[in-house]
């Protein structure tokens, strides 16, 4: 492939070096039956995914100087299905936390949900309407640490209650961290005692943070507001402004790729 003019979303050499070992190992473990090495480099495939994440473009509108839709979609689906996208994300999360003098896994997580509209063409069977927020579409649940890094993500129809998402998030937090590392979780009043009880089964103390009745207007709540900041950061990736994915698992994968973009920039002190 001839040299092309870089996009602002492209990986720098330093950022690529952070994830290259994982994808090189993946490629070696998945050789082509025919022995073909592939026309496109793993770096260019990731560049195409990050371009789409930032711009929100459709698959068939990827620029002609990036790998074609067929190649990018193939790897995107393979990495989503075998968990490579989350592996890359989690390894970067460990590095960001350790760079801040923290252990690889947090002791406290913050849970929250966000309802977003679904794009035209998203299957109705995987969407619903958030009765409280009057938003038709899907609901994202995030568990973050106090640095705003994503520990777990769950995507459901917007009609699913926060309780169900909260319990699913706690299960995924436990699966994504060293046993016993997470001891506490903060949630807002949208979550109920069933989430508190479920957290107890994992040895996690879930605290429902209630709004001070004396507060007027918007008042950020210490620590619990961190997850809202993460939602704001994710909204800079236009692919996440709405839910464009037919499969909720793809929606979750989009969060991992967006945070991979964020964390490689943090670790290399670069920005767009």
From TrEMBL:
Pfam families: DDE_Tnp_1, DUF4096. Residues 11-89 form the Insertion element IS402-like domain. Residues 105-233 form the Transposase IS4-like domain. PANTHER family: PHP DOMAIN PROTEIN (PTHR30007), TRANSPOSASE (PTHR30007:SF0). This is IS5 family transposase. It comes from Nonomuraea spiralis.
């Amino acid at each position: 492939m001839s040299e092309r003019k870089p996009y602002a979303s492209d990986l720098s050499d330093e950022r690529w070096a952070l994830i290259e070992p994982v994808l090189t190992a993946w490629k070696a473990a998945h050789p082509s039956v025919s022995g073909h090495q592939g026309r496109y480099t793993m770096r260019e495939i990731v560049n195409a995914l990050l371009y789409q994440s930032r711009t929100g473009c459709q698959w068939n509108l990827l620029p002609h100087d990036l790998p074609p839709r067929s190649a990018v979609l193939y790897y995107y689906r393979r990495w989503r299905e075998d968990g490579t996208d989350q592996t890359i994300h989690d390894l970067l999360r460990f590095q960001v936390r350790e760079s801040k003098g923290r252990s690889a896994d947090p002791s406290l997580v913050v849970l929250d949900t966000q309802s977003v509209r679904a794009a035209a063409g998203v299957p109705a069977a995987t969407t619903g309407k958030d009765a409280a927020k009057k938003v038709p579409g899907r609901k994202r649940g995030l568990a973050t640490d106090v640095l705003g890094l994503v520990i777990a993500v769950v995507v459901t129809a917007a009609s699913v209650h926060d309780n169900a998402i909260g319990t699913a998030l706690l299960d995924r937090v436990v699966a994504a961290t060293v046993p016993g590392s997470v001891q506490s979780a903060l949630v807002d009043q949208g979550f109920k005692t069933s989430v508190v009880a479920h957290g107890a089964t994992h040895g996690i103390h879930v605290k429902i943070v209630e709004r001070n009745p004396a507060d007027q207007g918007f008042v950020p709540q210490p620590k619990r507001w961190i997850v809202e900041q993460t939602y704001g950061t994710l909204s800079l990736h236009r692919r996440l402004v709405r839910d464009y994915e037919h499969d909720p698992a793809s929606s979750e994968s989009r969060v991992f790729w967006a945070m991979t973009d964020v964390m490689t920039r943090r670790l290399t002190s670069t920005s767009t």
